[in-house]
Amino acid sequence: MDDISPAARDVFARTWTDDRPWEFLSRLTALGDRMAGTDGDRRAGELVAEAFEDAGVRDVEYDPFEMACWTRGKTTLTVAAPDSRSFEAVALPYAPSADVSGPLVDVGYGTPDEIDETDVDGAIAVASTTTPAGGRFVHRMEKFGYALGAGAVGFLFVNHVPGQLPPTGALRYDEEAPAPAAGVSKETGVWLRDYAERGGEARLTIDAETTPGESRNVEGRVGPDTDRELVVCAHYDAHDIAEGALDNGCGIATVVTAARILAAMDLPLGVRVVGVGAEELGLTGAEHLVDRLDLDSVAAVVNVDGAGRFRDLVAMTHASESTAEVVSRVGDESNHPIRVEEEPHPFSDQWPFVRAGVPSVQLHSDSGERGRGWGHTHADTRDKVDERNIREHAMLTALVVRELASEAAAGTVSRLDDDELAAAFRHADFEVGMKAAGIWPTGWD
């Protein structure tokens, strides 16, 4: 780190006390609803473009793309027996308008093994938002898809975090789901599981609409104009029931702050900085980005989804030894801990790049608790954020990007091998769940 220029060192120093990350996050979360395809989404993109330009990112522009816009209506959940009562429920994005009834069946965590052990045919499956310790985290889309494949007519997603917080989250990637599903609070889930044990019957009614819509990526550049480049991105959209401060207001604020540092650095490779749209509804902005870029010219991707939320940085390196080595070196040389997790997953904006063989790292942070915590609930609000984490993670992000650019310029960043990547996903026990969710690449069979 000794070769950082005086100008960059000055920007690093000023970052410790910079109030602009907090101001940007405040303006973003004050928008309220910034669900992809809405007016709030459009205004959020404008804030990102303005922040990029202020940070010294050049050639900032919008790149629109088509996406499936989902609009929430009314959701009703009632239990007809053994008691007659109603509960608060929040429809999960891409749930269709539907009215289904059936027995409540408790499938525990909602893992494939648990669903296989129960009879959910014609039933409304009740599954937790968390998963058992000791194994990988099983995503909502996997649980929903597997339950439907076993014959369930509806799905209820029970938050494991107390506080009357029904969770949300998309059921499919950029398309309407084949059956209704809703999130309910932990407290409601206790009742539903009790009723399931007593042969309870429930009715789930959802009013929603999926229509053609548009979102956009916000792009610019820092560093030199080179044939090869790095991509640094973070999504700026959020679910409509929350401010989206943690997910992913912190992430896009981290990228804006890191871009200011990178703009002052002497980089050996150009960096494309992207505020990505429509991540929450299917990684649609990232898919669009992959479709339009020449991936042979993309040396690596740094996806900032989850950084800035909590104290310590986590680097998910997605089966890339090259990015794992870079992140470990930055953590050691900066004397800041960065936990490296090599296991891949397909549930953030690095996935379309990883699937195409581009080495990637997702910068994340967590509270130490399993699951999303306040994310994807009404409680994902600005007061949960410690702005010091954003500033510090931005500095670490800039150092990771700089080091990765140096390695890429030297030709030492290896592409991902398709067979090895498929084997890594199989080793992590993803095949069944990804097939249930409809996202297992056909070329991997």
Automatic annotation (TrEMBL):
Residues 100-190 form the PA domain. Coiled coil: none annotated. It comes from the Archaea. Keywords: Carboxypeptidase, Endoplasmic reticulum, Glycoprotein, Golgi apparatus, Hydrolase, Lysosome, Metal-binding, Metalloprotease, Protease, Secreted, Signal, Zinc, Zymogen. Residues 217-399 form the Peptidase M28 domain. It is found in: Endoplasmic reticulum; Golgi apparatus; Lysosome; Secreted. Gene3D superfamilies: 3.50.30.30, Zn peptidases. InterPro entries: CPQ, PA_dom_sf, PA_domain, Peptidase_M28. It holds the Pfam family PA. Homodimer. The monomeric form is inactive while the homodimer is active. This is Carboxypeptidase Q. It comes from Haloferax larsenii.
